[in-house]
Amino acid sequence: MAITIGVPTLRCTLILLNMMCFLSGLSLAIVGAVMHTKLETITSLTHRDNLLTSQSLMAMGLGVIIFAVAFFGFCGAAKHSYCMTVTYVMLTMVLIVIQIVVAVLLFAGTDHSRHDYLEWFDEYFDHGISVAKRSSVVDPIIDYLQSTYECCGKISFLDWGNKLPDSCCADGRTGPNCVPFEEGCERMLEGYIRQTGKIIGWILMWLTVFEFVALTLACCLANGIKNRVDALYFA
């Protein structure tokens, strides 16, 4: 009787946990895709590869894998399948180890990538502003950074002096009516890189906790299913 009552409870709980996990996996893939889109455009313009683009691809890949494994566990619990549940347990064990390793790499590697990226950024922006002041031609990469991240200048819009490029203007108002973005691009980009890397890392750690609970419940469910089958055929 205990098994009869316990198995449905385990199934419902495991289904709920896996629904949360595959929604979180989908969210992780979306965050990685957004991050990659922004950084990939800069990389393609500068022809300068960066560890951050690899991290965004890794987040997308892990998000898809987490989604697939969680959906597999959801189906195993919903269909009351011993084979699918045991397979889900093994896949989740491997996935948890991978997630912990990736999260540690993200937390440790984000600062290194940020310093490397911002070091290049400072040099490039100083040179671009200097050239623009002499020739009135704004570098397309700087234009892209300012319009995408809604920032102006390296430190602030004052870096441009009296001639603000159109990409600095908020609400599309250019020329004499230009209202520049208040924040400088260095601070904006640094905050974006720092926050995105940390967000992906914390999502992975949060998922690891839920997956560990789901793993424990899946083991209990598989054992309960096996006991019920044994009781049915060998009674």
Automatic annotation (TrEMBL):
<keyword id="KW-1133">Transmembrane helix</keyword>
<feature type="transmembrane region" description="Helical">
    <location>
        <begin position="199"/>
        <end position="222"/>
    </location>
</feature>
<keyword id="KW-0812">Transmembrane</keyword>
<dbReference type="InterPro" id="IPR008952">
    <property type="entry name" value="Tetraspanin_EC2_sf"/>
</dbReference>
<keyword id="KW-0472">Membrane</keyword>
<dbReference type="InterPro" id="IPR018499">
    <property type="entry name" value="Tetraspanin/Peripherin"/>
</dbReference>
<protein>
    <recommendedName>
        <fullName>Tetraspanin</fullName>
    </recommendedName>
</protein>
<comment type="similarity">
    <text>Belongs to the tetraspanin (TM4SF) family.</text>
</comment>
<dbReference type="InterPro" id="IPR000301">
    <property type="entry name" value="Tetraspanin_animals"/>
</dbReference>
<dbReference type="Pfam" id="PF00335">
    <property type="entry name" value="Tetraspanin"/>
</dbReference>
<feature type="transmembrane region" description="Helical">
    <location>
        <begin position="55"/>
        <end position="74"/>
    </location>
</feature>
<feature type="transmembrane region" description="Helical">
    <location>
        <begin position="12"/>
        <end position="35"/>
    </location>
</feature>
<feature type="transmembrane region" description="Helical">
    <location>
        <begin position="86"/>
        <end position="108"/>
    </location>
</feature>
